[in-house]
Amino acid sequence: MNFIISLLTCCFQLVFLLANDEGKFAIDDNGVITLISSLDRETTDSYNLTVTVRDQGQPSNSATTYVYVMVEDVNDVVPAIDAVREHFK
Q: What letter would DSSP give residue 58?
């Protein structure tokens, strides 16, 4: 899934592209990446995003960078105790 966001700044237009996001991230018109869907480390422990920005000049110029997102594990399953056995002396 690719997101294309346009930014009109002063005298030129920039287009931001975000790739390899698996529908989990978005990029805004300032190039800020945000989370749009929850992450689960047990399913995917990291993401390698590709961010490209290009202008609308003739010829067009562009730059690409890579953003590595590592997902930390959170105890999302609360331990349950089936039976409590108390024994005191």
A: S
